[in-house]
Design brief:
It catalyses: GTP + H2O = 7,8-dihydroneopterin 3'-triphosphate + formate + H(+). By secondary structure, the chain is α+β, with helices and mostly antiparallel strands. The protein has helices spanning 58-68, 74-87, 146-151, 175-185, 196-208, 213-227; strands at residues 15-31, 35-49, 92-106, 113-127, 130-144, 158-168, 188-189, 232-240, 247-255.
């Protein structure tokens, strides 16, 4: 059969990325408390394309991924990208994987257990210049406004926020440890199941620990630098404001700049 993708292209325009995205597929990831966890990931895989190639072989991305989906972790993820790169004779290969990750969490007073889910992701690139791997965790939290508490005689406005840490990773670590660290820096954490005694506790905890988005990213940055040794990381906080018609946002970046920063697919 005629292989159109391998035909020569004369426009002399190389493509930095070409590939597949928005593929949903079951995957198995490592779990600190239960060894492994089954979840469903959204996948994007790319490779660079030389100027003289008309197209790439899209099916080969999926073909390679299916061999690695049984267990996704840093070495295997990068090995998968290396195989994509070699299979497609590409200068570089890139990949992004985003998935819900579940942790059992006990209510603070009643100790009632329930599952919380967090949006996590892996991304990376492989080329002759090196291999890079990134992990991201997005943690929903409660934040209470310090200014509102200071000026109000009856309560203070609070809201749900999301704090996301994305880190370049060289050494193994548990995502659960990073999730718990982020929650500890917020006014309070979120829970799927709370009884009245728990609601009272969480409400008062938030009131006693007010934070702006600026406070949150600074506290998380300090805690990350004390606990982990990431070559590079960034912290983002986004508050869905409860009394304003806008969101509040803060961002900080630390460490040496990576060859290529990760981005959402």
């Amino acid at each position: 059969m005629v292989d159109v993708q391998n035909q020569n292209d004369t426009r002399r325009i190389p493509l930095q990325k070409v590939g597949v995205r928005n593929i949903s597929h079951p995957v198995t990831v490592l779990d600190r408390d239960h060894r492994t966890q089954h979840t469903v990931a959204d996948l994007a895989l790319y490779a660079s394309l030389p100027h003289d190639y008309k197209g790439t072989h899209m099916s080969r991305f999926v073909e390679v991924f299916q061999r690695y989906a049984g267990e996704i972790r840093m070495p295997r993820f990068l090995d998968m990208l290396q195989e994509v790169r070699q299979y497609l004779d590409a200068e570089r290969a890139f990949g992004e994987l985003h998935f819900p990750y579940f942790m059992e969490k006990q209510a603070p007073v009643s100790r009632q257990p329930s599952l919380m889910n967090y949006r996590c992701g892996f991304s990376g690139s492989v080329s002759a210049q090196g291999r890079q791997f990134f992990v991201s965790v997005a943690v929903p939290v409660t934040t209470l406004c310090p200014c509102s508490r200071e000026i109000s005689s009856r309560g203070a406005h609070n809201q749900r926020g999301t704090c996301t840490v994305t880190a370049e990773v060289q050494d193994f670590f548990w995502m659960e440890d990073l999730i718990e660290l982020i929650e500890s820096c917020a006014s309070a954490g979120l829970y799927t199941l709370l009884k009245r005694v728990d609601e009272k506790f969480v409400t008062e905890q938030a009131y006693d620990h007010p934070v702006f988005v600026e406070d949150l990213v600074r506290e998380v940055t300090t805690a990350v630098e004390e606990r982990f040794r990431f070559p590079w990381f960034c912290v983002e906080a986004l508050n869905q404001e409860s009394i304003h018609n806008h969101d509040a946002y803060a961002y900080v970046e630390r460490g040496r700049p990576p060859l290529e920063k990760p981005h959402e697919s």
